[in-house]
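Retro notes
What went well: the complex prediction finally ran end to end.
Inputs used:
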Amino acid sequence: MTAPRIALLGTGLMGAPMTRRLLGAGFAVTVWNRTRSKAEPLAADGAAVADAAADAVRGADVVITMLENGPIVGEVLFGAAGAAAAMTPGAVVLDMSSIPPPTAREHALRLSVLGLRHVDAPVSGGTRGAAEGTLAIMAGGAEETIAELAPVFAPLGRALRVGPSGSGQLAKLANQAIVGITIGAVSEALLLAASGGADPAAVREAIRGGFAESRILAEHGQRMIERDFLPGGQVRVHVKDLDTALAAASDGGVTLPLLSAVRDLFVALRDDGGAAYDHSALLIQLERMSGKRLGPGPDRLPG
Amino acid sequence: MTAPRIALLGTGLMGAPMTRRLLGAGFAVTVWNRTRSKAEPLAADGAAVADAAADAVRGADVVITMLENGPIVGEVLFGAAGAAAAMTPGAVVLDMSSIPPPTAREHALRLSVLGLRHVDAPVSGGTRGAAEGTLAIMAGGAEETIAELAPVFAPLGRALRVGPSGSGQLAKLANQAIVGITIGAVSEALLLAASGGADPAAVREAIRGGFAESRILAEHGQRMIERDFLPGGQVRVHVKDLDTALAAASDGGVTLPLLSAVRDLFVALRDDGGAAYDHSALLIQLERMSGKRLGPGPDRLPG
């Protein structure tokens, strides 16, 4: 296609910086957000701001959705003021929200009935990745559609096709499973070292040279040492992701004992006042269970 | 001290390349190994080869032990042909073996009675790290002794003091806990993705850009995709380490549910024929439990 016209629905913490990256790459972008005031600042960057989702998508070649959850994506696409009905046949819904794989597959099917295409392409990398165009983008859907979207992905990050419809969402769940379990691994290991009299900060530093090294040990491990539990990634949101992952595991017929165990730890932390804590605060849950602390010093907690 | 005279006891897969690194740095090194034939090739590199441990350590400033387990270290130091009695008062036993923290503390105490010093400094990084001098060295003991050993550590890798006697061993257990649990995390995540129809090789590649990235995802994840389970790090050895870690957790009064869960998975794999497999074969255990495979293709297995 020639430079595609883009609509972006959902200009929140992720959608807004992604819009700026697309505008910076020269795309024409029309944005819409349920709370219009969150979309309006993007006009100064060159975006057209629409009053309704249906207005934003009219004439667009690619409609990016970056919304909170599956029901909201469904409502925006297929609800009363539904966007799908206003789209041009042949256009693509590029859903970059994180939603359950079966919901993504259902959206793909409903859109195909309308002559529309669908790619599920959730991301990892957070608001910083969105601002810097360094997101990890996990794309599920038809090969030719994903190939066609390459110029749209380019300013946002690194996109890889991981399989058919729904696979992007599965990859995101795999990502969240690894992140959650690795946070648990680092929490338990540092607590083990401290319980025997070792210095957890020095242990973290010493083992970074070996096979234990990870982004989680580097970043979340440092948060644990500093006891800085301001989010970041909220416990509440991670529980939702892990529950979705366990539902997908059940659908797929696989038994995942570590995922189940870490989910239960996160739920206990959430239900004991930790819903808004950064997910590295899983350490606090393990400390409570053991009656031991990694070290002295106050916790930085939200709210 | 002036350039210390070094004795190295245990010239196995790790001790031999470490000896070569020390000789290359200009140290005088006398080596001993229970099976003498394993020590003899080091003579060509400039090492003196002793017939008995007691002969090797006589006159040495630093006695490095790199042996299989705690009982063997105890036997070599304090047994019938014990080395400790032949050492010069003030000399240092630098135990780089991986043994339980209480055993390391006991050795330190018994050596102090003889006027000898002790540092526990196990390593991570494997035979390649030993050959290249890039080991992660986790040192427990007196600050001034560890500082004094800096020239000895330099050709071997990066050494950090992590606390008092026994802390090096605790750090190694923390390392092994993270490695084991992260192998579990990557196994479960790839199996989850595959069970829903995504391509696990593409998922692994896609998520490497985000918070899920680790040495384990990079190296052991690739082994899982290729189904290459030749060791590497053996399941049998990792079970031993995880059991030692759980004993240390019990001593320290901390509850580590993920470590317990992954230990049970490794034990099941060991007891079902997997003792000599690489630890990345934890995937096979999860596949058996679920009756699903990550992908087709034969397994590369030892023996």
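What we learned: The mean pLDDT of chain B is 96.
What to try next: split runs per interface for comparison.
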